Every structure is written in structure tokens, then in C-alpha cells.
Protein: Serine/threonine-protein kinase receptor
Organism: Gopherus evgoodei
Amino acid sequence: MVKQTGKGRYGEVWMGKWREEKVAVKVFFATEEASWLKETKIYETVLLRHENILGFIAADIKCTGTLTELYLITDYHEHGSLYDYLKTTPLDTKAMLNLAYSSASGLCHLHMEIFGTQVKPAIAHRDLKSKNILVKKDGTCCIADLGLAVKWFSDKNGVDVPPKKLVGTKRYMAPEVLDKRLNRNRFQSYLMADMYSFGLILWEVARRCVSEGIVDKYQLPYHDLLPTDPSCKDMWEIVCRKKLRPALPSRWRSDECLRQMEKLMTECWAHDPASRLTALRVKKTLAKMMESRDITI
């Protein structure tokens, strides 16, 4: 263990060394064994490995007599989270599309069920936000923090979701989660709730893209409508009752790429889950936008 880089509700995150390589080590509190086990099981899912999903290395338990430490060891990305990266880094069109496309690509792989000699279940993240996406050295992203994710095999009727009703980060919760209308027995509902959160992430990314020499300061979604730590009631009031969404800068309309991004995000955060785009559709649209600008994927 070299140095602590972060702290979360389940424990701490450290940068460590393993075989002379830097690794990230998530250390769970001993009381959070169930969370550690759940996240480990998700990362060990067959066929989950993908360049846009955080690379899993190992899980381990270390007992030092009185203290039990639960480790989750993954690849280390020094840029940190997308949230940290956007706060300090203005983007050009290429950088914006790289971040958006790679995130959509990781989400698409997570959401997809793969059939073959082995089957990869479809997985819903349930806590998508810019703090749970990491930026790699090459300016692409990978999806991390799968502790709240749920798996679904199509041959299994029903969804194995723990009874706790509200999970995730309030600011990114879909309207149907906030007003408790989400159909808990239908797996598609969880995927569509992820897509709402993804729309907000696209908004965070697009604001940091320079157009006409202008770039907006980084802000969290709904920054102008909500307190720093909003309650579920605050969120419900804005998202469900008033049906408000993050403000769209007027400068986007005079930039073809940002106009397309605006269309994408608004179709992801539609109030009705059935009208939202799927991760695959978002990925394909972003791939087309990159091709038309000769950006290699």
C-alpha cells in the first residue's frame, strides 16, 4: 500500500504496488463484508472483461489478529474519476467524443447478455455517476464501482434484487426510482434507470467542451436547482413534480457536434423510461459522430 487516494461509504481507496505495477486497492470496513463479497462476485462474472470496464485483479481478506481488512484490487488509473478529470480539463470535440463513446461502450457491454459456451448475464449498474467512471491514460473511460449492480440471466424468471428500495446517488436517480414507480420485477427497468443517469453524465461532459472559444465551468447536474447534498424529497420535487432537467447552454445550438450531444442526452433522460435510448443505440450514434469527424475508435 503506497498512499490513500480516496474514501467512500464502504471504506477507503489506496494506490498500491503489485509486482512493481501500480494498482488500486479498495479497502472495505469489516462491517461491509456483504458489499465486498457482492462487488467481488460481479467482477468475477464470466466474460465481463472489457477495455471500458475497470480491470479486476484480485480480492483478498487480510487478518491481523484484531483487524480484518477486505481488499478489492483493480487496475489503477492516475487521472482518477471522470468527475475529477472534468473539473480540471477543458475538452475539444475529439476528447469529448472519446470520453462519451468509451463510457457508452463500457455500459453497453455491462447491459448486454452474451450467449455462447459460457453465458454473460446482463448487468445493471444502479449507481452510474461521473465519480464512478474512471479516465484512463489514453483519454478513454472505464466503468467502475459495481457494488450495487444486479445480474440477470434471461432463463431465470425474475430479478435477484435485494429488498432495499432506494439505492444509488440521489442526484442521479431516475424519476421512476424517486417516485417509487420502478417495476422491481422487470430487469429492463433497471437498465432504463441507468440510461437516465447516463444522460446526466453526457451533460457534464458536453459542458466542458470548448465551442466558439467558450467553455462552461464544471458543475454537477441540477447544481443551480438543488442544495449540495439534496434529499430524496428535493430531488422528487425538481425531477418528478416539476419535470425539470439540467439547463442546456445556448452556445450548443451553433455547434453541430454539441447539438447532436444535446439530442442524445435529452433522449436518455426522457421522463418515460420506455422512450429512453438503450446503451447500444447511444454507442452506435456516438460511433457515427466520430466516423463523420475522422476520429478513430
About this structure: The chain has two domains: 3-75, 82-291. The first helix runs from residue 33 to 43. The chain has a mean pLDDT of 95. The radius of gyration is 19 Å.
